[in-house]
Each structure stands twice: as C-alpha cells, then as structure tokens.
Amino acid sequence: MRVNIFDVAKKSGLSIVTVSRVLNNAPTVRENNRKKVLEAIKELNYSPNSAARTLVRGKTGVIGLTLTALNDSVFDGVVKSVFEHLKAKGYFLAISIETKRSEDSLEPCNFLFQEDRVDGIIVLSALEEDAYVAELERKHIPFVMIDSHGDYPEVTTVNVDNYLGGYEATQHLIGLGHTRIAHISGQDWFLSARQRKEGFIAAMTEAGLSPSLIAEGTFGIHCGYGIMQDWIAKGQVPSAIFAADDVIALGVIRALMEAGYNVPHDVSVIGYDDQTFAKEVHPMLTTIRQPVEQMGAHAVNMILDMVQGKPNEHIKMQLKPELIFRESTSKYKGVVDKR
After folding, report:
1. How many angstroms separate the Cα of 87 from the Cα of each of 43, 80, 273, 336?
2. Could you tell me if 30 and 76 lie in one domain?
3. 293 and 81 in contact (C-beta within 8 Å)?
4. How far apart are CA 183 and CA 190, in angstroms?
5. What's the domain count of the chain?
6. What's the mean per-residue pLDDT of the chain?
7. In Å, what is the CA distance from 33 to each residue of 9, 54, 90, 308, 324?
8. What is the pLDDT of residues 206-229, one digit of tens each?
9. What are the residue boundaries of the HTH lacI-type domain, all occurrences included (predicted)?
10. In a domain, 336, yes or no
11. What is the residue range of 17's domain?
C-alpha cells in the first residue's frame, strides 16, 4: 500500500500542516518537529507525490527556465547551476528552448508562460526580451533575468560586469606591451557586446592609445575568420586582438594561422566566456571567464524569494568576470608582415 502524507503525520504525531511545511522547507517549523517528520519519512520510505504537494501549498514546485540554445557551454553551465540549486531546495526545473513566434501571434511562443505551469521563470539571454518582459508582467508571473540585453528598471537581473571584462582583457594586452590592439565586437543589439566594447575603448584611451581598429561582427567563428582575413588582405594586422567571445577568437586564430602567422609569437589573441573548448584548442585560449555557477545560484535565490513572497527591491546583481591567462597571448615581439 502506498504511503501518503497522512501516514507521515500519524507516524510523527504531528499535523498534516506541519508535515507539509517540512516538505516545503518552511523556515517557521520548530527544529524538533522537523526532525520528527524527517525520521517518519525515512522510516516509512515516503516519497511525496508532486501533485499532492501542489495541492497542499498551492504551488507547482516547478521553476521554468527559457533560453535560446543549448550548444553553448556558458549557458550549459548556468543551467546546471540552476538545476542543482533548485534541486537542493526541493524544486523541479522545466526548460524551454526559445522559438520564433508565429506570424499571426502577438505573443512569444513559450509554453512555460502560464501561471499554472510554473511558480516562476528564469529568463536566460532571451532574444525576444521585450516581449517576454511584457508578457510575464501582464500575467503576474515572478521572473528573474540572467544576461539581459536591455535596461529594465523594474526587473530583477543577474548580469556579469562586461565593461570590466572588456577593460581587463584590453589591459592584459597593454600590460604585455601591445599598443596596436584591435577589437572584434558582437552585435550592438546585445548589452554585453556594447559593454565589452566600451571597456576596450576605455582601457585604450586611458593608456593613451588609439581604439580605432574596431569591427562589429556577430558571435560566430565565421565572423572572426572573415574579419581577420580582410585585415590581413589590407595589411592591417595588429599585434593583438580582443575578440568579444571565444568563438570569434577561434575564427581569428584560424585565419592568422592559414596566412602563416604564429599565435601568440606574431599576434596575441584573447577571447571572452571561457567556453569548454578554450583549454582544449592549440594554442590554449587566453580568455575572460564568466562566473556561471554564481549566476545560476543567485538567480535561484532571487526567484525563490519572489515565489515565497519575500520583499523584492528589483535587485540588479552584477558579478565580476575573471581573466584566464593561457597560451594565446604573450609579450609584444613585433608584427611580422607575411604578405
């Protein structure tokens, strides 16, 4: 016969309400009562039915997470962190991959955006960000944004200080003696891309150097490859390049090597993100690491505070990135003309 919450209450000698509070990690339960319930659960080998838990607390016990793609180790790291921290707090994670809305729809296509499906939503670097914010606010679904692209004063966000990351990446190259440093940015539509470029310009200007060699591209290997090929053809090869992400950096290195340049002996290259492959390629990539574990942990704490009705002042969390010095950057030795 299946054990239920009533059996746990009878075994522990406590009320169903108290048992429910223990199951939902309520902070108001006395420690002695919590131990009694946990002992009863262990002795009866009780596994709470999710539907029953939903009825008891009026919640689904599920937090949704929507993201653009899964083929990115930074996003993957954030999702894993969110999953582990939700699991530790007794919640389930439901994932939705962002899809384009239909032509006749005014709302983004996201099956999670229903009050009865999830208790709250974590929005990870969404492309339809404005539409998501509008819909979630209209439906009164608690939500937190990670890696937001716009400025939303009334929204709780967890972002990385990309300005600092761009600044430190450029300072790293300047510290190695480079003076002619180029930057390949992502699309200006992304707040992170704009901030990384602003950090680059600030570091160059502060050092009395010209930040004139900037190319706006897309976050992709073909972007870095094509822009670097163009610079090589025009004789505009800098001594160092700050790429807005690791994938762009891979394209840059490929174009340089095909043209006979050695990285980092002839040209230094630094990326951004610290994707999984960054330490597996040759040369191993110097990069700026995003604190993915912290991003997930803070987002979980914030969304659960909102779900549990705790005061929220629309927190703007900004985490610091970290410089990871590997093999693709070195001291300035002079640019070699391979033409």
Report:
1. 22, 10, 26, 54
2. no
3. yes
4. 16
5. 3
6. 88
7. 11, 22, 19, 21, 48
8. 999 999 899 998 888 999 999 999
9. 3-57
10. no
11. 5-57
